[in-house]
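Sample pair:
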Amino acid sequence: MQAQDIFQPGVGARREPVQVGAPPGLLSSWVVMPVHFNSLNVLGSMGEAVRVSCFGHQWVVVMNPGEIIYNGGGVGAVDRYVSLAIHNRTEKVIEVEFKCIIKHPHGGPNISVGSGKISKFPSSASSHVVGDIGTYACTHFALRSVLMNYLVNVGTLTVEVHMRINKPGPVQFVPGNPILDNLLDDFNNKETATIKLEVGGSREGSTKRIKTMTTSFYAHHYILRLSAPVLADMCKPRDDRTHSKYSSCVPITDVQPEIFKHLLYYCYGGKIDEEDLRKNAKYIIE
């Protein structure tokens, strides 16, 4: 059954492109590592492996004798392919673009192979052992008879390993929502508050209540309505404000000013210090 498209855009409608994975950044410059194979084993019956380091990773470049080419009668070898492989020997995945180039010593055509794009190299835990043909390998890199023409210094074969990676893109600044900081800036703000609360005036003594000084706190009715609706109901704005700029002035005598300060601060999005919470937990909960 064919799936139906439930979205039917009108004329001129354009859908946003779908991104799969993180978009690539800018590519770094090529890092070139000349690898010198100083014996003729790669052109004989044995392989050679050379370790190099690049982008914080250890790599092994391996050249091995490969498929034998026989003459037309099937008797006797006339040539042999040489394979080229690269292994990531670090226990961390990395994504790189690579190419391997053997330059002709007398200006002839170069021999090269490469990924052509950013490719993921598995970690050493999942890579093949040195000597095997790795995940990133060219089994028919070049014929032995051809490579003989690229030797320098009487027997050295130089392979230039080029690598580059995606440079990290610019970090996008995403501003945080300032609402909590703005609310805290208005905590106990005498100038912008709409409510005045007189807290204290008495406390429990050994035999009777003892009169104490009151402490004034300033709040905004809309914040109390959202964070402490019971307290907001006690502070309903009055119609007559001829003697005060505050819509409501409320006495609160059944809580100590220090405890009330923590509660009001919490209503404005603040956090109560753990030590204060531990010391006054009973009164704050009540």
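The radius of gyration is 39 Å.
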